[in-house]
Design goal:
Strand content: 5-15%
Helix content: 55-70%
Order of helices and strands: EHEHEHEHEHHHHHHHH
Strand order of the largest sheet: 2-1-3-4-5
Shape: elongated
Structural class: alpha/beta
Number of helices: 12
Number of strands: 5
Distance between the termini: 46 Å
């Protein structure tokens, strides 16, 4: 599980950033917050975050000094947020090897993309370390993070025409590697899993939105035509979508 520390002395911005990141469902599953650099340094000791997002202007210790002290504690990745487009800050950030320098107000899509890219880098680093001779559990942890990322990607995109190659490109991994790992860890191929997700979503729609046609539902969950939807549905349920819906209607009125 990847850990993220957000540091900002404005509570509204701090809570807004946390909500924004949680909504995006990235691999940073543990999100910690701090209202100033002193509190942040305490959090660093306890949590050992993989990434720190920090404002620059804060009382007592500013964000740049926080980064310097965090680097001494072997924290390596930082994103700076600021409301000031000042060249001197940007120059100092570059010297500190900050991965991104973002101006407020933050664009959620841009921040989400940065977090996903950073998560992929962190996970791949863990794999390299594991292959180099570290405990096997480290390899298992990084693979589990890949699986979580892939499942989150499918959950967000199942209604589109997505492939394993699309998912691999999204995660910056090789399709063959991702497919083999997913099969090994879940027992399902990518296609089997996405069909399970789609059929599960379709069943919920058929049960709760009885006025929608089956063709509409098929398209809403990612199938281009009703024939494919029927075929996949029967494979997973031993009945047609129409039979499933009729059975649900009867049970609801029974």
């Amino acid at each position: 599980m990847l850990k993220l520390l957000i540091v900002d002395d404005e509570p509204i911005i701090l809570e807004g950033l946390r909500d924004m990141i949680e909504e995006e469902k990235t691999a940073f599953r543990e999100i910690i917050t701090a209202r100033d650099s002193i509190e942040a340094l305490e959090r660093i000791e306890l949590a050992r975050p993989d990434l720190i997002i920090t404002d620059i202007h804060m009382p007592e210790i500013d964000g740049l000094e926080l980064i310097r002290r965090a680097q001494q504690k072997n924290i390596k990745r930082f994103i700076i947020l600021t409301g000031h487009d000042v060249f001197d800050y940007a120059r100092k950030a570059v010297k500190l090897q900050v991965i991104e320098y973002l101006l407020k107000p933050i664009k959620q899509v841009e921040l989400a993309e940065i977090l996903r890219r950073t998560a992929c880098e962190l996970i791949q680093e863990r794999e390299i370390i594991a292959v180099s001779g570290n405990p096997l559990e480290e390899m298992g942890t990084s693979q589990n993070e890949h699986i979580k990322l892939l499942k989150a990607y499918i959950e967000q995109s199942y209604m589109k025409d997505i492939s394993l190659s699309d998912a691999a490109a999204y995660l910056n991994l090789h399709p063959v590697y991702l497919g083999q790992m997913f099969k090994r860890e879940t027992g399902n191929t990518f296609v089997q899993y996405i069909n399970q997700v789609r059929i599960g979503k379709a069943k919920v729609m058929m049960a709760s939105m009885k006025n929608l046609s089956l063709d509409t539902i098929a398209r809403m969950v990612g199938y281009e035509n009703q024939r494919t939807f029927y075929k996949v549905f029967r494979k997973f349920n031993d009945e047609t979508p129409g039979q499933f819906r009729d059975r649900k209607v009867q049970s609801d009125h029974g």
